[in-house]
Structures are given as structure tokens and as C-alpha cells.
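INFO  loader      accepted 1 record
INFO  loader      residues=186
INFO  predictor   begin
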Amino acid sequence: MTIWIILAVIVVAAVYAVTIYNGLVKNRQMVEEGWSGIDVQLKRRTDLIPNLMETVKGYMGHERETLEAVTNARAAATSAASGSPGERAKAEGQLSSALGRLIATAEAYPDLKANTTFLEFQAALQTVEDEIQMARRYYNGAVRNLNVMVESVPSNFIAGPFGFKKAEYFELENEADRAVPSVKFN
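INFO  predictor   done
INFO  writer      dumping C-alpha cells
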């Protein structure tokens, strides 16, 4: 009779361990899906910038420093595309800051603010910034769920031996970079 009890305990423990393992796998996949969503939105924003810059150059030719800052920040963000979430967040924060300065500088150019192409890019940029924010929230939520499982008992007993590690949040370092650049023109 005791052998059956021991076997039942072993079977229950094995089923529980498999359930925990599958939960860890699910959460890891959600983190990867979330990162993919962020990556897609950041790429969309990076792809918008050259067209936006071409539209702006004709009006803001003497604002070379601002234009170069956006170009350099875009290049840095593009090169950080394969980096860690922290490295990527830093580069994207610099790009957001440069775009914010560009939009603020554009306020001084009434003809630019009335240009329909610029207005279309402005609307597209706002949409992408909103999508980035949503993707970041999804990703960070998935990271939180995985990290809780990796660190909490009893799932940490399964996570360690099977190589599950905490994921890194996608956070902007500079508090000012956390704000979505304002792209409203009235």
C-alpha cells in the first residue's frame, strides 16, 4: 500500500513540475513576442524618419544641428537594434529626445506646420509613438510575469536547472525621454 502512495506522490510531483515548466516556457514566449512587437514599432518609427527629414529640410535648412541630431540618433538606434533591451532603450530614448527637439523647432516655421506632407508624417509619428508605448507595456508585463516565475518558490526550483533567466525590462533612463514627443500643431 505504501508503494502506491509513494508512486502517487511522485506522479503528482512530476505533473506539477511539468506544469510549472510549461508555464515558464509560455512566459518566455510571451516575452519574446512582446520584444518582437517593440522591435516592429521601433523599426516603423525609424523608417518614417528619413521621409520626415526630407520634408523638414526644405523649411529648416539652417537648423543643421537639430537635423544632424535626429540623423545621428536614428543611426545609433539602428545600430543598437540587436542589443539588449537596456541598450536599445537608451538609443531609442536619445532618438525620442532628438525627435522632440525637431518637432519643437518646427513650431517656428508656419509654412512647415501647414505642409500636408509634414502633417501626414506628424500623424504617422504620433501613431507609431502610441504603438511603441503599448508594445512596451505588453513586453514589460510579460517580463514581469516571467521574472516572478523565475524568482518565486516553487517554480524557481524548475527555472534554475532548465536555464530560465530573468528578462530585462525595456525602460527609458531619462525621465524626460519617457514622455511621448508632442506632435500637435495648431
